[in-house]
Design brief:
Layout lengths: L1 H13 L3 E9 L11 E9 L4 H13 L4 E4 L5 E3 L4 E7 L22 E5 L4 H10 L2 E2 L11 H7 L2 E2 L2 E2 L4 E8 L6 E6 L17 E9 L1 E2 L2 H17 L7 E4 L11 H7 L6 E2 L2 E3 L6 E4 L5 H19 L8 E3 L9
Parallel strand pairs: 2-5, 3-5, 4-18
Antiparallel strand pairs: 1-2, 6-12, 7-13, 8-9, 10-11, 10-12, 14-17, 15-16, 16-17
Helix pairs in contact: 1-2, 3-5
Amino acid sequence: MEKIRGIIDKCLAENPCAAEYRFDEPMSAHTSFKVGGPADCWVRPSGDDSYGFTAALIGAAQREDIPLFILGGGANILISDKGIRGICLDTGGWTGEYLNPQSPIAQSLPETEIVFLSGTSLDEAAEAAAAKGLGGLEFLAGMPGSMGGALWMNARAYEREIADVVTEADILDYSAAAVMRHTIKVDKTQFDYKRSPFQNNRQLILSARFSLQERNKGEIRAKMEEHRSDRRNKGHYLFPSAGSAFKNNRGFGKPTGQIIDELGLKGQSIGGAQIAPFHGNIIVNTGGATAENIRALLEYTAAQVKEKTGFILEPEIILAGDWPHMRVL
């Protein structure tokens, strides 16, 4: 801990900025599942002037072989009960529109384009676009998570996905010894179902640029409320969860939730973890669940589907942290 404290203090002294950091921070406070043990050190930088600090911190962690985990909105991950070793870098301090005229990604923006910082909540981003009369992000209304995480996962819903609207990303590339900041162009051909080019690279997303369309504000908000209402009616907000547990596969001929439902698995529980009675592809924390409960239920569900249908489910939930005896679902 003292080694990490020394690194953070040195990076802050050389790159003064606003940054919170705490040791033994419970990750249950930072994930939608509301489970997860302590991070050795949790750091949340904020403000335009914090990017230099962040680059320095990442570089120092790499040189000292200190594990580094990037945390987005915490909406699609399951963190071990044992927590996270090393540094957990939380992007939640970077929120809202990015209007810094000195940044290449924010210069000469047409009226139909907007730049969001990576920690901006998806619902907040949809609201900000709607306020400008810009459509294209309505599908994000009511969806948990952050813009950076959504870009990393290529979040999708209601036949729309992030790849449809993103054009550029401002990143810190830490694939080499020197951490470098770049603005890179992206297009839909680089994305796939729940996959993005960022998943195969050591890149921290700082912000992203989106190309939208001018639309009637009333129509935009009506569509947003339709999506929020649909999510409420489907029970998405009843219990802590991470959304879809497994990816859909068109080769199966039907949605994963339907497959699980037809096998009579809805309502199955292990400890405080339960396959939601209202949706076969959502696992919820009914209260007091551990990460291991949820992990065990994921494994059980995948095993039952494989045994009875031959289908091999691919988890959508990402396991993170210190998992002893890591197993493959």
